[in-house]
Every structure is written in C-alpha cells, then in structure tokens.
Amino acid sequence: MDNLGLLMGGFGAVLTPENLMYCAIGVLLGTFVGVLPGIGPAMAVALLLPVTYGLDPVAAFIMFAGIYYGGMYGGSTTAILLNTPGESASVMTALEGNLMARAGKAAQALATAAIGSFIAGTIGTLLVVFFAPALASVAVEIGAPSYFALMVLAMVSVTSVLGGSPLRGFIALFIGLTIGLVGLDLNTGQPRLSFDQPLLADRIDVVVVAVGIFALGEALWVAAHLRRSPAHVIPVGRPWMSRADFRRSWGPWLRGTAYGFPFGAVPAGGAEIPTFLSYITEKRIAARHGKDEFGRGAIEGVAGPEAANNASAAGTFVPLLALGLPVTATSAVMLAAFQGYGIEPGPSLMTDQPDLVWALLASLLIGNALLLVLNLPLAPVWAKLLRIPRPQLYAGILFFAALGSYATNLQPFDLFLLLLLGLLGLMMRRFALPVLPLILGVILGPLMELKLREAMAISGGEVDALWSEPLAVVIYAVVAVAIIAPLVLRTIRPAPAAVAVDEGLAGDTTREEETVR
Amino acid sequence: MDNPGTATPPSPATDRDLPQLGLAALLVVVGAYTFYDATTLRVGFGDPVGPRLFPYVIGTVTVVLGLLLAVATLRGSVPEAEGGEDVDLRHPADWLTVLKLAGVLLFTVLTISFLGWAVSGALLFVGCAWSLGSRTLVRDVLVGAVMAVASWYFFHEGLGVILPAGILDGVL
Predict the structure, then answer these.
(1) I want to staple A275 with a disulfide (CB 3.0 to 4.6 A). Which of A92, A226, A289, A293 is the partner?
(2) A91 contacts in B (CB within 8 Å)?
(3) Whole-angstrom Cα distance, residue A303 to residue A41?
(4) How far is A412 from chain B (nearest CA, A)?
(5) What is the spatial distance between Cα A43 and Cα A40, in angstroms, rounded to a whole number?
(6) Closest Cα in chain A to B18
(7) What's phi and psi for B171, nearest 5 deg?
(8) Is-contact B144 B122, C-beta < 8 A?
C-alpha cells in the first residue's frame, strides 16, 4: 500500500488548476493531431513534444500525458470512422469498428472505444504503480552484461518477430544504429560520422529523427500517391451506449486489459499480438453464446481490442521506467521526451527522482480521465476534421513538423536534417522497411555501446564477462528462441497473411477497396 | 503494411523491383563509409572496447545486409508498399509533387533566419498546399499567415520559446 500513498503524493503535486488546464490543452491538441488521417499516436507525440519543452517538468508531464492519451484516442477515431488504422495496434479496432459505423452505430463504437480505453488505461497504470517500483528494485542489481543482453533482446524481438520480412527489419535497424553513431564518441570525445560539421558532432536530436521519419516521411509518401477522390467519412453524433451495449462491453474490456498489459510489460511486446488475441477470443465467446455479430459490426470486437491496445500501452511504461527500454514507437519517442525533461529512465530513476515518477503516473491517470470527459462530447467535432481537404491537411502536417523540429534548437540546420530524414522515411515506405526498428536503433544503439564498454572496462577486456551473469545467459537463450521460432513457424504453418484470411480479415479489406473507389 | 487487400498484386512485369538495387548499393556505401570513418579514430587508454568496435560491427553488417538485399531483389523479393487512408497505390508514384515539396522545404531552410518564422512558416504552408494541388491561393495565404503568426505568439507567450521574428522584427 506504500505505493498508493506515494501515488497520492503524486496527485497532490499535480492537481492544481493550472496543471489541469495544461492537461486539457494536451488532450485537445493530442486528439486534434491524432485524429488527422495518417498520424498515429507516436507521430502525434513526436510532433507535439516541443510544445511541452518550455514548461517546468511537472506541468510538462501532465500536458504530455494528455497529448499521449489524446493521440491514442484520436487514432482509434480515425480507425473507426475511416477504416484506416493509423498504426498496426488499431488494425483490429478498425475491423468491427468501421462495420459498426457503417451500420449506423458509429456513436456506440466511439463510446465503447473511449470507455474501454479509459478502463484499460486506468487499470494498466495502476498495475504500473505496483510493478515498476518492484522491477526497478530488482533491476538495480542487474549488471551491465545483462543490460546489454536485454537491449539485444528488445532489438531482435522488435525486428524479427513483428515485421513481415526479417531482412527488411534488420536493414531498418542498422540504418537506425548508423544514425545513432553520429556525434561525439562517449569516452574519447571524437566525432564519428560527422563530416566535420560541429552541428552533427552534437548528435542528431531524436525528436528530429522521429518527426522526420514518421511525419515528414508519411506526408511525402502520401504526396507521391495522393488519392484523387476523397475518402468516405461516416457522420457521427454524440457517442452514447445503451444498457445492452454496456452489458456486452464490460467483459471484453476486462479480458482485453488482461491480454494487453503483460504483452506491453515484457520487453518484447507491442500491441499487435494482444489486440489480435482479444479479437479472436471475443469472436469465439460470441459464437459460443450464439450471438456472433462479428463481420456485421460487433461491439465486442471494438471493446476488446481497444482495451487491449491501451492496457498494452500502459504496460510499456514498466520496462520504460524501470529499465529505460522502449519497445514501441510511442514509448521510444517518450524516452526521448523524458530525456528532454532531464530525466534518465532506468533502474535508478525510482530512487533518484521518485517525485517525478509519481507525478508522471498521477498525470497519466488524470490525462486518461480528462480524455473521457472531453472527448465524448467533442467526438462530432473531431469527425469533421477528417473532411479537411487533403492539400491543406498535409501542408499543415509539414508546417507543424517544421515548427516542431525548428523550435527545439532554433537551428535552420535541423530543418535541413528534417528534410533528409523525411526523404529517408519516404524511401523506407517505398521499400517497405519498418519504421520502429530504426527508431529503436537510434535510441538504443548509443545506450548499448555504453553498457558494452562499461561491462568490458569492469572485466578488463575479457569477452566472457558478457555471459558471466545467469540473467544474461537466460536472456540470450530467449533471443535465440526469438530468432529461431518465427523461422520454424513459417515452415510448419502458413504465413501470417493466410491466418488473417481465416479470421475473415481479407473479406473486409476488399470491401474497403470498393468504397474507396 | 500487412494488409493483403491494399497492396498492388504483383504482376508478371514487376517480378523484380530493380530500384531496390539502388537501396542495396546505398547500404553498401553507407556501411563502407561507416567502417572507413572508424579507422580514422584514435583509441583511448583504459577502454578495452574503444570507439571503433561499434562502427566496425555496424558498418560491416550494413554492407552484408546491402548484399543480401541485392541477392533477394534478384531472386524476386518485392516490397509490399505501405497503404493508408489517403494512399492510392494503383497509380504510378507522383515524384514531381515530392520534388516540389522538398524544394519548398529547402527554401524554408535557406530563408528562415532572414525571413523569420511568421513569414517563413506561412510561405511553407502556402507552398506545400500549392504543390499538393490546392488552387485556393487567397484562402491558403490567409490560413498560413494566421497559423504562422498564431504559433509565433503561442511559443512566445505560452511557452517562452522565442522563434526568430526576422523581417517582422518589431512588428510582432
């Protein structure tokens, strides 16, 4: 119960009228940006990050928490109303959600998504309150070798388990690692890959990388393939749910939360697997009760995956805060944000700056609650945003991308870097290179080098120090499984796309094709 | 990304995606340069790993990945291009628009210190909207100017970040 007391202290620090205003602004900005087509939560957070830099840490946190939840919710709004998931985590929400919207139940779909996100986010954050300090106290004991192993695990799992093509995943990862090399070497202070540019020797700002790859890359990619006819947007009223909708939703909300949190909390997670599991579980349960509306817009199919998505997002705070390990694109950007606020996530964070951690966790709970209060009434307004003409919409995204990267350091050079990274992002989309491994490489590469050199300096250059700790050996075993398992599965089972066809996904996407025409 | 419906079905003519060889070549060049750059570093004392190991490993693996990609391309590995709400993959890519947008951004990079954010940002918005096919110039100029000036004041008053005022110094 000690943790709860500390959390209350966090609330005390955060709950002032001024902070609540910042949080409300954050929720509105986050939803505004997140709802824009083509922008997922990670991109929304990266774009809006500079807005929080001028504030003191606690105000920045609470505004940031609002942006974060707003961006997540904005993404599911787009998924439901346009059938176009902003990122892979909301693919499952889009399936039944868009069918509901087309059947005239957009209001209920948005409501169950909002309330489900709120419940899952709240439970998830409370679980973080209990787990992260415990994990951190264990993690303090973890030596540099095991740390190094953990980072290898995070990179390998994100690169080889999630994407479709491991080769392309590793290419993205190593481009990221190369970008992470740019700048002064940590020990000897010599510039690497800097072409004698003092501004490059200063290292490339992760925010500029994220905005360039996510926002600018996406805008350029869309520009190259802009659809000539506008997409079909479903009008929506104020979200509401009937008593029967509630009765059908609460089970999926809780089951989705139970799926999502563990997957987010282990440093190999992501939201793709739990949302998928939640979707098929709800489908089976509905079939068993003889009320299978899946394929025609089942509210369970929105409630479950949406809860799983948010619980998993909350779960990612455990490795992020306790180990300093980001495992999703959003948490990678968040790590950069925390560093911008002068906070170094990792085992010692909980003991060094406990006030800030508890303020952050309290902020997340408040942001989540404010989101529900603000966005249920505002949903019709957000839906109108989807009708902004495309040239102005993407011009606006480019405008904010430029503003965000320029405002961080006020260097025109950063804008030039933004352009180069945007072209890189465009190239990655053209060649189907996944974005997440690249961001992870940029952030984890330098950390990994630091830990390796630490481990080696302690051992005096003995390489076997790397597997001298039992934990490190266990992690390397998991890494081996993570590399081998997909290869084995691919040979004995049909490809993931074929599995998706079994679950009725393919039929839906072809229907999307037709409406798009 | 993994959306089977939105990806263009591979036709016999596009069995091989030859531009991928360009990416493979780029990877080889970047990897080799990373390796070369590392050889110019001096090794410090009391640091068994040194500043060279990471770039050596990263550079080497990048070269190998480039070669693997070249082999995969020749054996018919085709990228599944990313779909999206506003993305229509059935038409050939419109690289001219991309070029225009890059030009607008480059113009911003070169002039922002002189013009200041309020003017530069507005021009950026108008230029991008125009490149993307908007022909409502007056409205775009108005929207761009309002957004740029408003964001200048928002950063100045609300966040304490002073964006350069440029030629509007004293007016804003």
Answers:
(1) A92
(2) 3
(3) 19
(4) 5
(5) 5
(6) A431
(7) -85, -45
(8) yes
